[in-house]
Amino acid sequence: MNVYLAELIGTGLLLLLGSGVVANMLLPKTKGNGGGIMEISTAWALAVFVGVVVAGPYSGAHLNPAVTIGLALTGQFEWAMAPGYILAQVLGAMIGVGIAWLVYKDHYDATDDVGLKAAPFGTSPAIRNLPLNFFSELMGTFVLILVILYNDGVEIGDSNKTPIGMGSLGAIPVAFLVWVIGLGLGGTTGYAINPARDFGPRLMHSILPIKGKGSSDWGYAWVPVLGPIVGAALAAGLYLVAGA
Protein backbone atom coordinates (compact mmCIF):
# COMPACT_ATOMS: atom_id res chain seq x y z
CA MET A 1 0.00 0.00 0.00
CA ASN A 2 1.22 3.52 -0.79
CA VAL A 3 2.40 5.31 2.37
CA TYR A 4 0.15 8.32 1.79
CA LEU A 5 -2.87 6.13 1.17
CA ALA A 6 -2.05 4.26 4.37
CA GLU A 7 -2.01 7.52 6.33
CA LEU A 8 -5.32 8.55 4.76
CA ILE A 9 -7.02 5.24 5.55
CA GLY A 10 -5.55 4.98 9.04
CA THR A 11 -6.57 8.52 9.98
CA GLY A 12 -9.97 7.97 8.37
CA LEU A 13 -10.59 4.95 10.58
CA LEU A 14 -9.40 6.91 13.62
CA LEU A 15 -11.92 9.68 12.99
CA LEU A 16 -14.74 7.38 11.91
CA LEU A 17 -14.58 5.58 15.24
CA GLY A 18 -13.55 8.57 17.37
CA SER A 19 -16.20 10.92 16.00
CA GLY A 20 -18.63 8.03 16.06
CA VAL A 21 -18.24 7.42 19.78
CA VAL A 22 -18.78 11.11 20.59
CA ALA A 23 -21.93 11.09 18.47
CA ASN A 24 -23.08 7.86 20.10
CA MET A 25 -22.55 9.21 23.61
CA LEU A 26 -23.99 12.71 23.12
CA LEU A 27 -26.63 12.75 20.40
CA PRO A 28 -30.22 11.92 21.37
CA LYS A 29 -31.95 8.59 20.78
CA THR A 30 -28.74 6.61 20.21
CA LYS A 31 -28.16 3.29 21.96
CA GLY A 32 -25.16 4.80 23.76
CA ASN A 33 -26.64 8.15 24.78
CA GLY A 34 -25.52 9.30 28.22
CA GLY A 35 -21.96 8.02 28.26
CA GLY A 36 -19.07 10.06 29.58
CA ILE A 37 -15.34 10.64 29.42
CA MET A 38 -14.41 7.04 30.28
CA GLU A 39 -16.30 5.64 27.31
CA ILE A 40 -15.11 8.39 24.99
CA SER A 41 -11.45 8.18 26.06
CA THR A 42 -11.47 4.39 25.82
CA ALA A 43 -13.00 4.42 22.35
CA TRP A 44 -10.54 7.04 21.06
CA ALA A 45 -7.67 4.91 22.38
CA LEU A 46 -9.05 1.85 20.60
CA ALA A 47 -9.59 3.92 17.46
CA VAL A 48 -5.88 4.77 17.54
CA PHE A 49 -5.15 1.05 17.88
CA VAL A 50 -7.25 0.32 14.78
CA GLY A 51 -5.57 3.04 12.75
CA VAL A 52 -2.07 1.96 13.77
CA VAL A 53 -2.77 -1.70 13.00
CA VAL A 54 -3.93 -0.87 9.48
CA ALA A 55 -1.42 1.85 8.54
CA GLY A 56 1.57 0.84 10.64
CA PRO A 57 3.18 -1.74 8.33
CA TYR A 58 3.06 0.68 5.39
CA SER A 59 3.52 4.26 6.60
CA GLY A 60 4.53 3.93 10.23
CA ALA A 61 1.02 5.10 11.22
CA HIS A 62 1.71 8.69 12.19
CA LEU A 63 -2.01 9.58 11.80
CA ASN A 64 -1.16 12.96 13.29
CA PRO A 65 0.84 15.95 11.96
CA ALA A 66 2.33 16.41 15.42
CA VAL A 67 3.84 12.91 15.21
CA THR A 68 5.14 13.60 11.70
CA ILE A 69 6.71 16.89 12.80
CA GLY A 70 8.17 15.41 15.99
CA LEU A 71 9.81 12.57 14.08
CA ALA A 72 11.13 14.92 11.41
CA LEU A 73 12.61 17.27 14.02
CA THR A 74 14.51 14.37 15.59
CA GLY A 75 15.81 13.16 12.22
CA GLN A 76 13.69 9.99 12.20
CA PHE A 77 11.56 11.03 9.23
CA GLU A 78 12.26 12.84 5.98
CA TRP A 79 11.02 16.44 5.88
CA ALA A 80 10.35 16.05 2.15
CA MET A 81 7.62 13.49 2.91
CA ALA A 82 6.00 15.50 5.69
CA PRO A 83 3.65 17.66 3.53
CA GLY A 84 2.23 14.56 1.83
CA TYR A 85 1.72 12.81 5.15
CA ILE A 86 -0.01 15.82 6.69
CA LEU A 87 -2.27 16.32 3.67
CA ALA A 88 -3.24 12.63 3.73
CA GLN A 89 -3.98 12.86 7.46
CA VAL A 90 -6.24 15.90 7.03
CA LEU A 91 -8.10 14.34 4.09
CA GLY A 92 -8.47 11.06 5.98
CA ALA A 93 -9.89 12.88 8.99
CA MET A 94 -12.38 14.69 6.76
CA ILE A 95 -13.54 11.47 5.12
CA GLY A 96 -13.79 9.57 8.40
CA VAL A 97 -15.82 12.24 10.18
CA GLY A 98 -18.04 12.65 7.10
CA ILE A 99 -18.93 8.96 7.15
CA ALA A 100 -19.57 9.09 10.90
CA TRP A 101 -21.94 12.03 10.33
CA LEU A 102 -23.85 10.04 7.72
CA VAL A 103 -24.13 7.05 10.07
CA TYR A 104 -25.65 9.29 12.77
CA LYS A 105 -27.50 11.72 10.49
CA ASP A 106 -30.94 10.91 11.91
CA HIS A 107 -29.62 11.64 15.39
CA TYR A 108 -28.07 14.94 14.32
CA ASP A 109 -31.44 15.87 12.85
CA ALA A 110 -33.18 14.92 16.10
CA THR A 111 -31.45 17.60 18.20
CA ASP A 112 -31.57 21.38 18.14
CA ASP A 113 -28.51 21.71 20.41
CA VAL A 114 -25.77 23.24 18.27
CA GLY A 115 -23.14 22.28 20.84
CA LEU A 116 -24.04 18.60 20.60
CA LYS A 117 -24.03 18.81 16.81
CA ALA A 118 -20.51 20.30 16.83
CA ALA A 119 -18.97 18.01 19.47
CA PRO A 120 -18.30 14.99 17.20
CA PHE A 121 -16.45 17.27 14.78
CA GLY A 122 -14.06 19.72 16.48
CA THR A 123 -12.91 20.03 20.06
CA SER A 124 -13.98 22.84 22.37
CA PRO A 125 -12.86 23.99 25.82
CA ALA A 126 -14.84 23.28 28.96
CA ILE A 127 -13.82 26.75 30.19
CA ARG A 128 -12.80 29.15 27.44
CA ASN A 129 -9.43 30.55 28.43
CA LEU A 130 -7.34 30.53 25.27
CA PRO A 131 -3.87 30.73 26.87
CA LEU A 132 -4.63 27.84 29.23
CA ASN A 133 -6.50 25.96 26.51
CA PHE A 134 -3.38 26.29 24.36
CA PHE A 135 -1.22 25.06 27.24
CA SER A 136 -3.50 22.05 27.75
CA GLU A 137 -3.15 21.02 24.10
CA LEU A 138 0.59 21.67 24.23
CA MET A 139 1.08 19.48 27.31
CA GLY A 140 -1.11 16.63 26.09
CA THR A 141 0.81 16.49 22.83
CA PHE A 142 4.15 16.91 24.60
CA VAL A 143 3.45 13.75 26.59
CA LEU A 144 2.23 11.91 23.49
CA ILE A 145 5.27 12.71 21.36
CA LEU A 146 7.87 12.29 24.10
CA VAL A 147 6.62 8.81 24.97
CA ILE A 148 6.40 7.82 21.30
CA LEU A 149 10.00 8.95 20.77
CA TYR A 150 11.17 6.83 23.68
CA ASN A 151 9.03 3.80 22.82
CA ASP A 152 11.34 1.32 21.12
CA GLY A 153 8.59 -1.30 20.87
CA VAL A 154 6.70 0.64 18.21
CA GLU A 155 9.22 1.99 15.74
CA ILE A 156 6.84 4.57 14.34
CA GLY A 157 8.15 6.37 11.30
CA ASP A 158 10.18 3.66 9.57
CA SER A 159 8.34 3.03 6.31
CA ASN A 160 11.02 0.70 4.95
CA LYS A 161 10.20 -2.21 7.22
CA THR A 162 7.30 -3.35 9.35
CA PRO A 163 7.34 -0.77 12.15
CA ILE A 164 5.33 -2.77 14.69
CA GLY A 165 7.71 -5.35 16.06
CA MET A 166 5.10 -7.27 18.03
CA GLY A 167 2.57 -7.41 15.20
CA SER A 168 -0.79 -5.95 16.12
CA LEU A 169 0.14 -6.02 19.81
CA GLY A 170 2.74 -3.36 19.06
CA ALA A 171 -0.06 -0.82 18.68
CA ILE A 172 -1.25 -1.34 22.25
CA PRO A 173 1.30 0.98 23.95
CA VAL A 174 0.23 3.91 21.76
CA ALA A 175 -3.44 3.15 22.46
CA PHE A 176 -2.77 3.09 26.22
CA LEU A 177 -0.85 6.35 25.90
CA VAL A 178 -3.76 8.11 24.19
CA TRP A 179 -6.14 6.58 26.75
CA VAL A 180 -4.30 7.97 29.78
CA ILE A 181 -3.81 11.37 28.13
CA GLY A 182 -7.56 11.54 27.58
CA LEU A 183 -8.37 10.57 31.15
CA GLY A 184 -5.63 12.64 32.77
CA LEU A 185 -5.45 15.76 30.61
CA GLY A 186 -8.52 15.66 28.38
CA GLY A 187 -11.06 17.36 30.61
CA THR A 188 -10.06 20.91 29.72
CA THR A 189 -10.22 20.99 25.91
CA GLY A 190 -11.27 17.53 24.78
CA TYR A 191 -7.61 16.72 23.97
CA ALA A 192 -7.31 17.08 20.23
CA ILE A 193 -3.51 16.48 20.50
CA ASN A 194 -3.67 16.17 16.71
CA PRO A 195 -4.07 19.11 14.30
CA ALA A 196 -5.58 16.90 11.56
CA ARG A 197 -8.09 15.42 14.01
CA ASP A 198 -9.49 18.89 14.73
CA PHE A 199 -8.92 20.93 11.56
CA GLY A 200 -10.26 18.37 9.08
CA PRO A 201 -13.47 17.63 11.00
CA ARG A 202 -14.04 21.31 11.82
CA LEU A 203 -13.77 22.05 8.10
CA MET A 204 -16.29 19.28 7.39
CA HIS A 205 -18.63 20.77 10.00
CA SER A 206 -18.58 24.03 8.08
CA ILE A 207 -19.13 22.27 4.73
CA LEU A 208 -21.66 19.53 5.43
CA PRO A 209 -25.40 20.31 5.21
CA ILE A 210 -25.99 19.73 8.92
CA LYS A 211 -29.43 20.98 9.90
CA GLY A 212 -29.17 23.88 12.39
CA LYS A 213 -25.47 23.28 12.98
CA GLY A 214 -24.49 26.73 14.24
CA SER A 215 -20.94 28.08 14.27
CA SER A 216 -17.82 26.02 13.56
CA ASP A 217 -15.95 28.29 16.04
CA TRP A 218 -12.97 29.13 13.85
CA GLY A 219 -11.88 31.64 16.48
CA TYR A 220 -10.81 28.69 18.63
CA ALA A 221 -9.49 26.50 15.82
CA TRP A 222 -5.89 27.72 16.11
CA VAL A 223 -5.58 26.27 19.63
CA PRO A 224 -5.86 22.55 18.69
CA VAL A 225 -3.62 23.16 15.67
CA LEU A 226 -0.75 25.25 17.07
CA GLY A 227 -0.84 23.77 20.59
CA PRO A 228 0.01 20.24 19.38
CA ILE A 229 2.66 21.52 16.97
CA VAL A 230 4.44 23.46 19.72
CA GLY A 231 4.08 20.50 22.09
CA ALA A 232 5.63 18.19 19.50
CA ALA A 233 8.52 20.61 18.93
CA LEU A 234 9.23 20.85 22.67
CA ALA A 235 9.12 17.08 23.07
CA ALA A 236 11.50 16.67 20.14
CA GLY A 237 13.82 19.28 21.65
CA LEU A 238 13.91 17.52 25.01
CA TYR A 239 14.52 14.18 23.31
CA LEU A 240 17.48 15.61 21.39
CA VAL A 241 18.95 17.31 24.45
CA ALA A 242 18.44 14.39 26.82
CA GLY A 243 19.48 11.78 24.28
CA ALA A 244 17.77 8.62 23.14
Write structural notes for this entry:
With 244 residues, the protein is mainly α. It has one domain: Up-down Bundle (Glycerol uptake facilitator protein), CATH 1.20.1080. Helix content is 64%, strand content 0%. The chain is built from ten helices and no strands. The protein has helices at residues 3-26, 37-59, 65-73, 82-103, 105-109, 114-118, 130-150, 172-185, 195-207, 223-242. Helix 3 crosses helix 7 (130-150) and helix 3 runs parallel beside helix 10 (223-242). The protein is globular and about 55 Å long. It starts with a helix and ends with a helix. Pfam families: MIP. It is a multi-pass membrane protein. This is Glycerol uptake facilitator protein. It is found in: Membrane. InterPro entries: Aquaporin-like, MIP, MIP/Aquaporin, MIP_CS.
Q: Summed up, what is this model?
A:
This is Glycerol uptake facilitator protein. With 244 residues, the protein is an all-alpha fold.
